[in-house]
Amino acid sequence: MLATDYVGSHTLRIVRPLDLDPPAAFIRTAPGQTRTAQAANCTRPYWIAWYAQHGGACDVVKNAGPTPPYSVIQTDVNGGSAWYDALNVNLSHHAQNGSALLASYTWSHALDTVDPDVPSQNPNDPRLTGRRDELGNAIYDQRNRAVLSGIIAARSGIRLGGIATLAGGLPYNIVTGVNNSGDTGATTDRPVINGAVVRRNTGRGTPIFQLDPFVAKRVRLRGDHVWANLRAEAFNVLNHRNVVGFSGTWGNGPAPGRGFGAPLAGVTNQLPARELQFSVQIEF
Length: 284
Hints:
By secondary structure, the chain is mostly beta strands. It contains 3 helices and 13 strands; from the N terminus they run βααββαββββββββββ. The strands form 3 sheets. Strands 1, 2, 3, 4, 5, 6, 11, 12 and 13 form a 9-stranded antiparallel beta sheet that branches.
């Protein structure tokens, strides 16, 4: 049986960080452009008002004399949005002996203006947080995903089967690794490539592959009333390294720096290695 369907969603009011007293926008058009934190602070509305109230002037070069007690005034607001569109195709077959096969393919595209649970997701410019400036691939955007699953009902009550998954790589954010705009503390500024600041999450990781087989057998223990269901299965049986975290630090120059795009270490940056599992279920 062949089935196709479309899935779409639009999410509003996603939580995102926001500087309530942001400096003036710092528009970059070439690699290497930076603004000091002091120069940026002097353009903050609160700093301008504070110096006007105290009869002084903000020195854009050095922080001398009395200064305002605050620079970044950060809060969380419900200002993010997300979109998801997908085409699903499923082909299934069921045999009379209990065997079955399911082949599924999904093409999808997920876009958003912020991924709130992921590091390095502050905006490139604190004054430019809207759809036009921050809309990009969601961190979970996986364009292609194919899954083949099935079960074979063999003789003597033995069942063989498993799941094979082949999917595209996940995005990662590309950043300069320095504070270009001087907005104090944030190093989420994205580099200028080909004359423009790159969009969010334009990096793309390596494909993901996993094979999860199993074998099962139902054994009679006592008459027709007590049975044991034996099952052995493996997850990622080929122990394929599926990396989901990559270094997105481009650097502040026209070409990527050393280590850009390299896999990151740590268990949170890759899917689990091979796992084996055995189970016995008593049925009565």
